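Changelog-linked ticket: V47 example.
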Amino acid sequence: MVETDRDLLLESVVLGHRDRRLAQIGEKVLGERRLTPEDALYLFERADLTYLGLLADYKNRKINGNLAYFVVNVQINPTNVCIYGCRFCAFAVKGRNHPRAYELSTEEILAKVGELYALGGREVHLVGGIPPHWRYEDYLNLLRAIKERYPEVILKAYTAIEVHHMAKLAKKSVKEVLRDLKEAGLAVLPGGGAEIFNEEKRRVIAPHKASAEEYLKVHRAAHELGIPTNITMLYGHVESYADRVEHMTKVRELQDQTGGFQVFIPLKYRPKGTELGGEEASPVEDLKTVAIARLFLDNFKHVKAYWVTLGERIAQLALSYGADDLDGTILEEKIVHAAGTEAALGHAKEKLVSLIREAGKVPAERDTFYRVLRVYS
Ligand code: V47
């Protein structure tokens, strides 16, 4: 339903569009009707950025009003030693003896959580490599140690790839592993490891990783156990527009069935120092991808502009192209920084508040479950 002057303007742009197919897609958005995968592909191939931005911002305002979210959090990457040699990853190393290999001790991890606590933050995002020497209990003990010292912490930890690996390690079902993790303190499963679901492209960029089916099986199981999850899509490497649409279609289908996803996160591939190499996607591509995700994923409340991969300037712009969330203060991040992102770290929350305000949105500090803690009106 069209309400404001701005919406009336959008309506006239949509109805007057000379490309009738784009006009019809715009009418679907205004009428809150679902876009088909073919619509999404047409948007990628034919829509200009201004049109996409108008539509995606309209859709986002219908869902989130003028609010844009951020969280006070810390990201901890416990180790870069990883059994998978994903070709897009400049962070991981194969063995413990590699000159760049590192592994944080539990005490070092606890010290980082302590820094977050002192700032009043409660979200701890754990994501790293999958080391060959970690036993099943090591994954659980790390969560237990954090929760024991800092009981109020909300743990967003271990991707579906790790959970799949743990199930093999412990010879348990995925559900049993998730139950153990939950008991040890896991609150939310982060969205890493999704990469691109198209099997052929997945084999090119991440030849040894769990398949799309195995990955989504973990998310489904988490949703069935009442564990909310996030979901990503790595774009800007060897995938086509059709692959992006296929990826988002699988995500939308699972969300229709479970409703367990909190947020969709398009992750911009950073090529520097990676085996895969290539050029990085342009800002236009970034904003198009965010906008089409917002329009296509009508069963998602949130779309994240992850400032670490996008850079804070494009992330800020993305708030006018359908994104409503910037992630958080992070404090420390090694994965995308290994691949050459120039985003500065250690953002104070004041910085995120001012980025959001400057974009014309109202900053809302949230927790890991997207519960609003404070609105900076
Ligand atoms: O899965 C690795 C990506 C992910 C590169 O759930 C790269 O809220 C770009 O998933 N260029 C881990 N990306 C981070 C992640 C994440 C981040 C923020 C919030 C959430 C959430 C999840 O980083 C990996 C991989 O897709 N990655 N290398 C690279 N060169």
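Closing comment: Example verified and attached. The mean pLDDT is 95. The radius of gyration is 20 Å.
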